[in-house]
Design the sequence.
């Protein structure tokens, strides 16, 4: 990777908490020896967050600096880890001090997403991290509910309300993290840097902008009916490969055309309502409501409401 390429992909920019959580999630899923820029999984994450594979590989190496199991094996990881990486120390501690518990631990996805959305580890989290590590030690591993208790005891929260959940949308800070949980089975490996998975509007913005509403001032159909927040909302977003969304791909294709020849497995993966009438542009609002229902059902384990002390079902 040349210095020019490196500088063209967010070179020198501080890693966000979302990016760190995504990187740690990958760190937990592959052996340290595979944290290389040439690893397809490293390349896929780099594409998702807009960084180079080399940058992601270095960050995974930074996590190794906290890993006592690696140290006992004579591997030190990379030095100069960011202070923001400290947010993930409780999970690093749990994974490598209680590996048997980690294999069956439930609620890790919930913890990761709520930590990002709520900003529970913002500011100066040193004491909170110590308390979380203490809880992990007491419970001999990761326990979501006890971590929640430790966080609440410091006046912080990991609650993910529906309002916060639906604030995620096109261009938001957290949609990539949600899609990382959503598209776990997204069988796609970028062959080169420009072949990236992309967040796309199901109902194209260009089509929605053409729909007009009556102006209260003139009484004419002269104002855009669906504003930016309506077009960019989560229920109008999906993840596509660059090939699907590039030249000759979906682009501005309406859903009634794009989904017409797609198998049921494709619709299921993207949580697309099966009622084809909802794919028509004049049923946009009905489509959004039905897709919200499907999305909420998939991620019900993450939402607080009456599930504060519930963990994600196995396999979530």
Sequence:
């Amino acid at each position: 990777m040349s210095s020019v390429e490196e500088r063209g992909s967010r070179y020198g920019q501080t890693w966000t908490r979302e990016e760190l959580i995504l990187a740690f999630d990958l760190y937990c899923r592959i052996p340290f020896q595979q944290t290389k820029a040439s690893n397809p999984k490293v390349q896929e994450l780099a594409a998702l967050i807009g960084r180079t594979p080399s940058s992601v590989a270095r960050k995974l190496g930074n996590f190794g600096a906290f890993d006592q199991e690696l140290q006992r094996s004579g591997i030190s990881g990379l030095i100069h880890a960011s202070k923001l990486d400290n947010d993930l120390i409780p999970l690093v501690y749990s994974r490598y001090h209680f590996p048997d518990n980690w294999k069956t631990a439930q609620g890790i996805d919930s913890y990761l997403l709520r930590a990002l959305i709520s900003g529970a580890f913002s500011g100066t989290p040193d004491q909170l991290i110590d308390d979380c590590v203490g809880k992990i030690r007491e419970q001999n591993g990761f326990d979501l509910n006890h971590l929640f208790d430790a966080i609440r005891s410091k006046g912080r929260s990991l609650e993910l309300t529906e309002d916060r959940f639906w604030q995620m949308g096109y261009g938001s800070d957290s949609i990539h993290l949600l899609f990382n949980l959503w598209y776990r089975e997204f069988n796609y490996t970028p062959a080169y840097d420009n072949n990236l998975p992309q967040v796309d509007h199901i109902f194209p913005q260009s089509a929605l902008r053409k729909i007009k509403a009556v102006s209260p001032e003139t009484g004419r159909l002269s104002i855009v009916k669906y504003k930016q927040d309506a077009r960019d909302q989560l229920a109008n977003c999906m993840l596509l490969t660059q090939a699907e969304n590039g030249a000759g791909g979906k682009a501005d294709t309406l859903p009634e055309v794009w989904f017409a020849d797609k198998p049921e497995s494709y619709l299921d993966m993207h949580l697309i309502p099966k009622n084809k009438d909802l794919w028509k542009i004049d049923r946009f609002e009905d489509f959004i409501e039905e897709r919200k229902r499907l999305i909420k059902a998939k991620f019900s384990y993450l939402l607080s409401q009456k599930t504060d002390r519930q963990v994600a079902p196995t396999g979530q």
